[in-house]
Amino acid sequence: MIKHEEYPLISVIVPTFERSNLLARALDSIFAQTWKQVEVIVVDDNIPGSLLQKKTLQVLRPFSN
pLDDT per residue over 20-34, tens digit each? Predict the structure, then answer.
């Protein structure tokens, strides 16, 4: 039997631009998968310091560890 920590790490890249309202749904879907060795990289293409970027950061806050 393979131990959990022996499974390879899977990287998921999530690009986002003006879609912070859908980001939580996408992340929930990723973390609901049976494969638990996952790293998620969110690429925020909003203008730095903009309201859209701030909304994206608000959505990401509960998912950070």
Answer: 999 999 999 999 999
